[in-house]
């Protein structure tokens, strides 16, 4: 009895062409600076949301638990965004050192 839906796998050799071109160091520094600024803005926004939710928890006692949970989530996002901003700052400094000593 023949198997239905059986197909043989054909092995096809593919050659990958390496096209990874490293951006110039000046562009890399600008990219890290832009990401750092966006992460800082995200940290500020998350902090504002956390403060708003804390205020809502006080003024709306019926839904206080929901507001406390939202406050905790916004606080965690603020911490994560701040950490990412710090990470990008270190990457930017590393790129600046590389540009300074390689040129």
Overview of the molecule:
This protein is mainly alpha-helical. Helix content is about 70%, strand content about 0%. The chain has two helices and no strands. Helix 1 runs antiparallel to helix 2. The protein is rod-shaped, with a radius of gyration of 25 Å. About 5% of the residues have low confidence.
Largest sheet: none
| Basic shape | rod-shaped
Query: Which percent bin holds the helix content?
Result: over 70%
**What percent of residues are in strands?**
under 5%
First-to-last CA distance: 71 Å
Q: Unreliable segments (pLDDT under 50, ≥5 consecutive)?
A: 17-21
Key traits:
single chain; 103 residues; mainly alpha; 72% helix
What is the gist of this entry?
The chain is mostly helical and 103 residues long.
Secondary-structure blueprint:
Elements: H1 25-59, H2 64-102
């Amino acid at each position: 009895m023949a198997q239905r839906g059986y197909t043989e796998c054909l092995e096809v050799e593919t050659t990958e062409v390496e096209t990874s071109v490293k951006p110039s160091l000046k562009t890399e520094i600008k990219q890290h600076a832009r990401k750092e600024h966006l992460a800082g803005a995200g940290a500020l926004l998350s902090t504002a949301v956390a403060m708003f939710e804390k205020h809502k928890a006080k003024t709306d006692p019926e839904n206080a638990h929901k507001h406390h949970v939202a406050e905790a989530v916004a606080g965690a996002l603020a911490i994560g965004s701040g950490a990412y901003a710090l990470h990008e700052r270190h990457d930017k400094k590393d790129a600046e050192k590389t540009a300074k000593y390689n040129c």
